[in-house]
Predict the 3D structure of the following.
Amino acid sequence: MDCAEFETKVASFLYDLLPESEKLRASAHLDACPRCRGILGTLHTMTCKVVLDLLADFLEGELPVEEALSLRRHLEVCRECVDYLESYQATIQLARKAGAAGVEAPAPVPEALIRAVLAWRKKEG
Amino acid sequence: MTASDPESALASESDLVRRLRAGEEAACDELVRSHGPRMLQAARRILGGDEDAEDAVQEAFFQGFRGLGEFAGTCRIGTWLHRIAINCALMRLRARRRRPEASIEELLPTFTADGHQARPVRWESPAAASESDEVRGIVRRRIGELPESYRTVIVLRDLEGLDTEETARLLDITPNAVKVRLHRARQALKTLLDPDLGSVH
């Protein structure tokens, strides 16, 4: 297994989702490659808790490249975080739509308020 | 030319400002009727109760008329009044006798010792969720249930459409604090919406 292949499988390896033969090949590559050990280490710290903390920055494109990559790899193997991401994004859309012009037409201003403003305006000149 | 033509809209607006400065009562009436509703809507979202929100809007018009001489016309008069109304509503919110705010913690996601989500929830059709009036009503109610300092940020950013910088200035906090609070507010809102839109698995 080379680095390119290992990188596509690092998340599955970490969460023990690889078939036995591939797991052995991945382990052999890891033993020989400090760079890929680094990638595995970074992904190891990208827990669901960290993913959910970083979600806003991730969606805004404000995460450093390496962190964003690690988060994407986590999402590839974690259905629960994908579910969270989808409902989080839907929540943002729901909040925006709840306020969008045309969806909830604002009620007219009470006549008493208009009279009060006009009276004040007259008094103040 | 139609009323929605941007150039004629601007022309009629500068005409309105001129008539206001001349102290024309009909212009004042027109201004309150056309811009008051959106200002009142924003104030209600910030303050909840009707009476307080109406007082805030009244105050905003007073401030607006006083400041009319300084209105430079660099933005639309509606945008200018909208910001003043939000500011007046926020001042009222601050002046209220502070009850201890409910904690946001219990509305944030929880995790197991090894860092996994403790109560994962899946929304069946997240993309379609916003299409019904019923859901929009639920969302507005749930936003009202958020602790005050989080509700304010989500109202200003997502409902009233202000940007991070402007929200920070109005709330007198840093832009970074706005981002952190907005993220938590959205997480909390998601949690509040889970029973309505999600299924636990």
About this structure: Chain B has a mean pLDDT of 88.
